[in-house]
Amino acid sequence: EVQLVESGGGLIQPGGSLRLSCAASGFTVRDSYMSWVRQAPGKGLEWVSIIYGGSSTFYADSVKGRFTISRDNSENTVFLQMNSLRVEDTAVYHCARSTGRLYGMDVWGQGTTVTVSS
Amino acid sequence: EIVMTQSPATVSVSPGERATLSCRASQTFSSNLAWYQQKPGQAPRLLIYGTSTRATGIPARFSGSGSGTEFTLTISSLQSEDSAVYYCQQYNSWPFTFGGGTKVEIK
């Protein structure tokens, strides 16, 4: 079964760091375009970052320089390292798969909740 | 950054009727546009990619169209289970961006 399972969320103080994980099964992350998408409470979807190919990466302006996406092919897992967290980073973070550059995100995880608060 | 604007914010449609959702881009691009459905407490589900191609398992009542800066999602005969928020997303250029969503209510 094709599946994504996120973990690593929690309550963190402003300025802190957190590392999210997204474990994939049923397909290989190395051959996919893997994104992180977040949703603040009561708000819409916001694309955060993507990794694909030989580890090409892109970021939303709102997280550039603070967040880093990476993957471990041996563990078939994608990560999101989040540093210098802000209150406005509070959201449910989903990882999602695209099978190619021309396709939408067809597999989504249920998400992990990040709360940034003092 | 391409800004995506969806309208209306909420649409109320009777079962069996047609629902038309609009998505406008701040600049023109090719067909790299997707539509997602999200129900409360659930992850988004891909409905349409490449502007008009239905994703696997998506009923034929969902259709996408458009070009340039104007895109449309049509639900031809609304069912009760179609009550949800619908998002458009451009994946033509970085950063990828979503519209603010349209909530579809059943009358």
Task: Detail the topology: elements first, then pairings.
The complex is a heterodimer of chains A (118) and B (107).
Chain A: E1 3-7, E2 10-12, E3 18-25, E4 33-39, E5 45-52, E6 56-59, E7 67-72, E8 77-82, E9 91-98, E10 107-108, E11 112-116
Parallel strand pairs in A: 2-11
Antiparallel strand pairs in A: 1-3, 3-8, 4-5, 4-9, 5-6, 7-8, 9-10, 9-11
Chain B: E1 4-7, E2 10-13, E3 19-29, E4 33-38, E5 45-49, E6 53-54, E7 62-75, E8 84-90, E9 97-98, E10 102-106
Parallel strand pairs in B: 2-10
Antiparallel strand pairs in B: 1-3, 3-7, 4-5, 4-8, 5-6, 8-9, 8-10
Helix content of chain B: under 10%
Class computed from helices, strands and strand pairing of chain B: mainly beta
What ranges of chain A have pLDDT less than 50 throughout 5 or more consecutive residues?
none
User: Which residues of chain B sit in consecutive blocks of at least 5 with pLDDT less than 50?
Assistant: none
Account of the 3D structure:
The complex is a heterodimer of chains A (118) and B (107). Chain A starts with a strand and ends with a strand. In chain A, strands 2, 4, 5, 6, 9, 10 and 11 form a 7-stranded mixed sheet that branches. A 4-stranded antiparallel sheet of chain A has the order 1-3-8-7, with no helix packed on it. Chain A is built from no helices and 11 strands. In chain A, 0% of the residues lie in helices and 53% in strands. With 118 residues, chain A is mainly beta. The mean pLDDT of chain A is 97. Chain B is mostly beta strands and 107 residues long. In chain B, 0% of the residues lie in helices and 56% in strands. Chain B is built from no helices and 10 strands. In chain B, strands 2, 4, 5, 6, 8, 9 and 10 form a 7-stranded mixed sheet that branches. Chain B has a 3-stranded antiparallel sheet with strand order 1-3-7, with no helix packed on it. The radius of gyration of chain B is 13 Å and the shape is globular. The mean pLDDT of chain B is 97. Chains A and B meet through β5 and β9 of A and β4, β5, β8 and β9 of B.
